[in-house]
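Most newcomers find our protein records easier to grasp once they have seen one. A record pairs a protein's sequence with a compact description of its fold. An example says more than a description, so a record of this kind follows:
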Amino acid sequence: MNDKPVSEMTFEEALRGLEEIVTRLERGDVPLDQSITLYERGAELKKHCEARLNAAQMRVEAIRLSEDGTPKGTEPFTA
């Protein structure tokens, strides 16, 4: 397991770490105390992944079209 601080992880590193935790917890062979620690780390990784995805979504731009259908610029993405 990666002991790197979550705040320093890329999205891909955090997602990989979360997948590893889920696999370990699903196996069911982890002692209770360690399971709780893993769960807490997993929750932190999940939150980090969601924040990184939200930040990426905010950077996406939609192409604006003029009345005749030709591109005339971009505008911030809105959900």
Q: What stands out?
A: The mean pLDDT is 87.
